[in-house]
Amino acid sequence: MSSLHPGADTAQILTHLRSLRNEANIAGMARFGIVTDTALGITTDDMRKIARAIKKDHVRALALWQTGLRDARLLAAFTAEPRKLSLQEARDWAADFNSWEIVDSVADLFVESGHWPVLIPEFAADEREFVRRTAFSMMAWAAVHLKKEPDEHILAFLPLIERYATDPRNFVRKAVNWALRQIGKRGPACRGPAWTLAETLADSGDRTARWIGKDAIREFEKKFGPRVKDGRDQSGKA
User: Fold this and answer.
1) What is the CATH number of domain 83-238?
2) How do the domains of the chain map onto residue ranges?
3) What Pfam families has UniProt attached to this entry (predicted)?
């Protein structure tokens, strides 16, 4: 796939990316709601192969991001060094977000940076659609991958989920729902509180909140079986 190597500079990488432009893929991405104004149509799998070839380089990743190209920004997300990412760099990148795909590709980097306790509430309160989505994508990623993080830190996301569950914008509501479902599936300690919130939202007078709650309940029931009145599932776990 790639003749690139860890020493490749930004110009060499951009030349290689442009050589892989695929119009059919660009059209397909657009059908999935991906913003393709600056896209080259390189698949995510191929982008990850390129990332493995060039290795991580934080300064180069920042330069790739500044190009504004969709594919270069994905490569930046895959090759940035999480612990070198500053809070301001994360904020600057978030200000550029214009597509759910970019948000979800960068969310794990933001979590791995260690800045998530600051960024999640900050981004959730931000009125910009894709910045707010970032907060809930980060929650979903953290619930799954931060396995050593105390459950109470993950459960602290639930009030934010409840607060913003009435945001009707498509890319926000889907991320809020995603975060709630992933928290509920994290483990027994998180299941009960997430399920209780899902039930609260399902009874809401707000249409968006009802959808988020009911969809989460469907997934919980599919995975754990029906919840009984004392808050325990069929396995007997809370």
Assistant:
1) 1.25.10.90
2) 1-80, 83-238
3) DNA_alkylation
Distance CA 61, CA 51 (A): 10
Cα–Cα separations (whole angstroms), residue 47 to 19, 41, 223, 231: 13, 10, 33, 44
CA–CA distance, 160 with 175 (Å, rounded to integer): 12
Structure tokens at 113: 């940076």
Structure pTM? 0.92
Q: Under the phi-then-psi rule, with left for phi > 0, alpha for psi from -120 to 50, and beta for the rest, what region is 9?
A: beta
Looking at residue 228, its amino acid is V
SS (H, E, C) 208-220: HHHHHHHHHHHHH
Q: How far is CA 237 from the centre of its chain?
A: 29
Calculate mean pLDDT across residues 215-235.
80
Give per-residue pLDDT as tens, 165-201.
999 999 999 999 999 999 999 999 999 999 999 999 9
Residue 135 to residues 51, 94, 141, Cα–Cα distance (Å): 25, 10, 10
**Cβ-contact 175, 150 below 8 angstroms:** no
The C-alpha atoms of residue 104 and residue 181 are separated, in whole angstroms, by 16
155 vs 207: CA distance, rounded Å: 24
Residue 20 tokens read as 């892989």
